[in-house]
Specification:
- The protein is an all-alpha fold.
- It has 5 helices and no strands.
- It has helices spanning 11-19, 23-46, 51-74, 84-91, 96-103.
- The radius of gyration is 15 Å and the shape is elongated.
Length: 104
């Protein structure tokens, strides 16, 4: 289930985070959201440079995306640099909607 978070960045990540039953699935959902947003911003910024830079950013993004999705399939939870550990700690807590429902 965790690998499905990366299928349609970042939309599938949002679904995985909100509907995930385990902290692992929620972590991959958050990471898919972060990666999808970052990749889109970097691609947009790269369009203001040369086409070669845009192609390199795109290729690097595809490579990272494949590593993340294949890692999730085989059970190896890769973390994005700088934010991965923080996203994992956030995923340990249930989403706000679940916390409110459990308080009732």
């Amino acid at each position: 289930m965790a690998a499905l978070a990366y299928v349609l960045l970042p939309i599938s990540g949002l679904v995985a985070y909100l509907k995930g039953s385990s902290s692992r699935v929620r972590f991959h959902g958050l990471q898919a959201i972060a990666f999808g947003a970052l990749w889109a911003v970097l691609l947009y910024a790269a369009t203001w440079t040369t086409p070669a830079v845009t192609q390199v950013i795109f290729a690097a993004g595809v490579l990272v995306w494949l590593v993340l999705i294949l890692g999730a399939i085989v059970g190896r939870d890769w973390h994005l640099p700088l934010v991965g550990a923080w996203l994992e700690s956030v995923a340990q807590k249930p989403p706000a909607g679940e916390r409110e429902a459990s308080m009732r």
